[in-house]
Design a protein that fits this description.
The complex is a heterodimer of chains A (120) and B (339).
Chain A (H helix, E strand, L loop, with lengths): L2 H14 L14 E17 L6 E7 L5 E7 L3 H6 L12 E9 L5 E4 L5 E2 L2
Parallel strand pairs in A: 3-5
Antiparallel strand pairs in A: 1-2, 1-4, 2-3, 4-5, 4-6
Chain B lengths: L1 H10 L14 E7 L8 E10 L2 E6 L2 E9 L2 E9 L5 E11 L2 E7 L5 E9 L16 E3 L14 H9 L16 H6 L4 E6 L2 E6 L5 E5 L18 E7 L2 E7 L4 E2 L6 E2 L4 E8 L5 E8 L8 E7 L16 H10 L2 H6 L6
Chain lengths: 120, 339
């Protein structure tokens, strides 16, 4: 951050008043807005439900170890608007998806609904 | 004088009807071309004069008046987008014929589109009842999503203690309460039954009842602890005025803006000439906020037939995610933060 940007940030806080936590939206709170990524894995659990549709994927990392990733998306209405249904992704599917990555290295992915590739 | 007028025109000096800062004072309806969902949004804009200086509030939170020069004004406010990034927009505009209009820019100078402020509607109060048709389905509001508010020490403490990733009641399919539910990206349906109004929220299938029979609040209203509160309404001219008390302490945004069970919420629902539904909300909760928080939502009729139907909510995915992340113990340990 440049000195000017830093000063602006300080002035902004002084002008608008304090607010402790940055998180403003329940879904976004878990994700780093500056980190994007792609994962590939086998769907081991499907939660087609509100408040957020979720899929859990078993992913093999670069070291050959298995990891569980939490792929989170929007409420059902948002999924339906993007053309998804509860059958779009099913247990056992191998899929590749992209999206925002979790804060602090957590194994989370905020699904970009246009990124789905069903591999087999 | 004639020479001066010609010279002033030539060099661009404003000669006629130069606005004073006091002409900005009052309540305005703010429209921005790009809200937090990159579509037009509405909000409340208030200018006040404090000790000769003009101060501003957007959606009930402080904004920063950076310059006032005759009929021109520049102010900025902070807001958060859906990716949870806190952004600052600067609005430059000119007051003419009772309307302030101009352009909005991002911190890096990028143009963010047009903005406009018109005098807030519904200035007259205590008029004879003249009901209008509010029943039916209304679409989700487009909001500005103001970020910071003038919190008291207690409010700041409550907000800082909140962890949106684990404390948010919505994650457990528990009602997120009157104000947050009113702001959410969901439809509502207004139904009239025996003179009372029922508001069905798509979000969590919450039902709100507005008593219209002139009753008073129950004596034990302070202990009611209802997610949507106890609401009493009446027609003030063609505006539906609703007062709500008896709310369960909760949040009114996902980031943790708190309110206590002593909060009082006043709403004024009215239709404009184009049929849009305007809802002014005033949250008065002195325990958490230095001043009442004034918000303004606009809903429109859906363009396609829409039925407010079942909302299937299951917290299982939330708990499963906590288990995979090894945060279940943390969750149980935060029982005191649970709303």
């Amino acid at each position: 951050m440049t000195i000017r940007a830093c000063l602006f940030a300080v002035l902004a806080v002084a002008s608008f008043g304090g607010r402790g936590a940055l998180a403003h939206h329940a879904l976004a709170a878990n994700y780093d807005p500056d980190l994007k990524g792609t994962i590939e894995g086998v769907v081991i659990e499907v939660f087609w439900s509100n408040p957020h549709v979720r899929y859990f994927l078993e992913v093999v990392n670069d070291d050959g170890e298995k990891e569980i990733w939490d792929v989170e998306s929007s409420p059902i209405t948002g999924m339906a608007a993007a053309g998804w249904s509860k059958d779009t992704v099913e247990l056992g599917d191998r899929i590749r998806v992209s999206g925002g990555l979790g804060r602090d290295g957590t194994r989370r992915l905020n699904l970009d609904k246009s990124s789905l590739e069903v591999l087999d | 004088m004639r020479f001066f007028v010609i010279a002033a025109c030539l060099i661009g000096l404003p000669m006629a009807s130069v606005a004073q800062p006091s002409e900005f004072v009052g309540e305005w309806l703010l429209w921005v071309e790009h809200g937090n969902r990159t579509r037009p949004a509405y909000g409340s804009l208030v200018f006040e004069q404090h000790g000769g200086a003009l101060v501003a509030f957007v959606e009930g939170g402080p904004a920063d008046v950076r310059a006032v020069d005759g009929d021109r004004i520049e102010f900025a406010f902070d807001w958060s987008n859906l990716q949870d990034q806190v952004l600052i927009s600067t609005l430059e505009g000119r007051l003419a014929d009772g309307v302030i209009e101009g352009r909005m820019r991002a911190e890096d100078g990028t143009d963010r589109g047009a903005w406009r402020a018109t005098r807030a509607r519904d200035a007259e109060r205590n008029l004879p009842p003249d009901p209008v048709e509010l029943t039916g389905v209304w679409g989700p509001p487009a909001i500005i999503s103001k970020h910071s508010f003038a919190l008291t020490a207690a409010g700041l403490e409550a907000e800082e203690a909140y962890d949106a990733t684990i404390d948010d009641p919505m994650l457990r399919c528990v009602s997120d309460g009157l104000i947050r539910m009113s702001h959410g990206p969901w439809h509502v349906e207004v139904i009239e039954v025996r003179g009372h109004l029922y508001i069905l929220h798509e979000d969590l299938q919450e039902i709100r009842r507005v008593y219209m029979d002139g009753r008073s609040f129950p004596d034990d209203i302070a202990d009611a602890e209802r997610a949507m509160g106890y609401s009493i309404g009446h027609w003030d001219g063609s505006t539906l005025a609703i007062e709500t008390r008896g709310l369960k302490a909760n949040l009114w945004d996902a980031g943790g803006m708190p309110f206590t069970s002593a909060a009082v919420v006043n709403e004024r629902w009215s239709l404009d000439d184009s049929g849009q539904l305007h809802i002014e909300i005033t949250l008065d909760d002195p325990a958490n906020f230095e001043r009442p928080v004034r918000m303004h939502l606009v809903r429109e009729r859906p363009t396609e037939s829409f039925e407010v139907g079942p909302y299937s909510c299951d917290p299982h995915g939330f708990y499963r995610g906590l288990e995979f992340e090894g945060r279940l113990e943390e969750y149980w340990g935060r029982s005191g933060n649970r709303l």
